[in-house]
Structure formats: C-alpha cells, structure tokens
Amino acid sequence: MRNLVLLGGGYGNMRVIHRLLPNQLPDDVMITLIDRNPYHCLKTEYYALAAGTISDHHIRVSFPDHPKLKTEYGNISRIDLEQKKVLFHDREPIPYDDAVIGLGCEDKYHNVPGAPDYTYSIQTIDQSRHTYQALNNLNAEATVAIVGAGLSGVELASELRESRKDLNIILFDRGELILSSFPERLSKYVQSWFEEHGVSIINRANITKVEEGIVYNHDDPIPADAIVWTAGIQPSQIVRELNVEKDAQGRVVLTPHHNLPGNEHVYVVGDCASLPHAPSAQLAEAQAEQIVQILECRWRGEPLPESMPKFKLKGVLGSLGKKAGFGLVAERPLIGRVPRLLKSGLLWMYKHHNG
Predict the structure, then answer these.
(1) What is the DSSP string of 278-328?
(2) CA-based Rg of the chain, rounded to a whole angstrom?
(3) Of the candidates 40, 81, 192, 224, which lies 20 to 30 Å from 263 by C-alpha distance?
(4) 318 belongs to a structural domain
(5) With left for phi above 0 and alpha for psi between -120 and 50, is residue 219 left, alpha or beta?
(6) Same domain for 31 and 91?
C-alpha cells in the first residue's frame, strides 16, 4: 500500500484531498494528512479573528472523514528526503512514498531589530488568537500600529476600525499610495476610506527598529500600545531548511510538474512553491489541481504531459469592514459594496463545499 503524505492542512492539500476522495484514489494508495491542528483553518479570515469581528469557530472547517484518509497530529521538525520520512519533535517519524509539502508561510521581518520580539502576528490561528486578546484588552483611545499595508494589513486595519471605534489606528505603508500594485482608482478609494474612517496612513514608511511600545519610522520613534506585523512573508522554517534549490524569496524551485528536480515523489504546494504569481489560497488550489493530475498519471504508469497549462486566477477581493470592499476581477477594478458581497459569498461557498 502506497502512502501519500500531505504535510499541512491548508488550501492546497485540502484541494488534493477533495479531488482524490471519495472516488479518484487508487485502491493501493492511502492518504496521511499531517497538521498541528485538528481542523482546516481559513487563513484568509485571520484578520477578522484578530480584530474580534468573528469568533474562532467561523474559520474552522473539519477535515474530511474517509476510510482511506488518516489524520496525524504533531509538530514537524524536519523532512528527510533521502530516507523518505517526516520527522517530529513529539512523536515517531512517518514514512511516505509520495509527499506534498504545504506548510505555508511565516512572517518575514526583513532584519528589522526588535520586530520578532515586540510585534503581534496573524500568520497562524494561534497567533491570531493571541493578537485578538492583546487588541481586545487595550484601553479606550489606545494606539495600534499596523506595519505593512498589503491585503492583510488593509483588511486588519479596516476590520479593527469597525470592532474598536475608540482606538487610534496607524497603518504604515512603504508605497506612495496604499495598495500601489493595484489600479490607481482602487488605491485612492481604499486610501480615502481610511481617511474618512479615521485611520492614519503613513506612506513612504521605512520601519528601522521596533522596541516595546515603540515603532521607529525612518528612525523617528512613534509610540504604540500594540504593534501588529503584516509586512511580508517567507516559507516556513521546515522548508527554508531543506537542502534544495530556492528562489530569491526562499521558495522552492520546482519542475513544470510541481515536484522537486530529480525527485518525482515530493511536491510543494502553496506559499512555499516558487510560482509566477503572488502567494494566495486561489493559487494554492489551482496548483493542487495540477499536482493531482500528475500523481494520477504516475500512479497509472502513464506518460506525463510535456507542459502544464498556465494558472487561470480569477482575481483578488478584499474587505473594508463588513459593508465595503475592493477587488480586481478579470483585470477590472471593483470598489464599494459589490466586492464585499462577492467575498462573503465565496467564503460561504468554500465552507459549504469543504465542511
């Protein structure tokens, strides 16, 4: 019996499971899913958990229940590519015949002194819970500094504004205009939303140091009662320690069939994979679809396609609280209530089909 081991229960490996079960998995293959948590977490909604506008159970989805799916829990310490084993800090190793590494990402602090020690995070569900506790316990008129104004920072700042109207919120952005990679019309809309709702934006920011209760922007100290870091990501430490080729961002370089060069039994999906798009749940799912196709070909002993089709991503949707949002769908910018409704609908559909 072959053992397909899925490392991490994120969006990519959840898609692998749902494509192979209940009917596509060969009789001689079992799936073993390894995760720290006993449920799939909706990472795209961690900002709302941290802000206190949704509760914990809203962003948990049970793993599928099937006789050919075995779920194991533990803290992975290392992946032994030569021995084909997953090693743990707290249990015996698990061998694999094929493996899909989907261990996600961690905050990237860009060597800013003090940032790992004095900032909160929303990269994991545990960190988001911790951040929620810190933000929820702040006194009235306290100051929250959010470092990084990408999608996560923008959604956290807007959601926190709705949750705690008494707080002073400062959003630090490196660009001339917030969300500068989006069309200017969309960026101006988001920037004006923050101005209208009393969120301070510091553009052209450069955080040079963080101390307890202080953010240094261009070496100028700015006091804050809580500091949340959303200024970049990097692959998980387990992946960073793998002795394989990586790109400039530390993501694993793969063949066109998504496996390690020279190793057709190990695949990498999601945030840890070097792909021609920014990491996202949508991208991880699209990649997982292709990985399943390749696995099925190899299991049947069939030749692999010479190339894989380009990913067809539908766009990006972001929220500004519960009533407004923004997005880029088919290269068309969307602002206002419609993109917020679209995002809510997609989230409901995901939970309905995966729960």
Answers:
(1) ---HHHHHHHHHHHHHHHHHHHHTPPPPSS-PPP---EEEEEETTTEEEEE
(2) 21
(3) 40
(4) no
(5) left
(6) yes
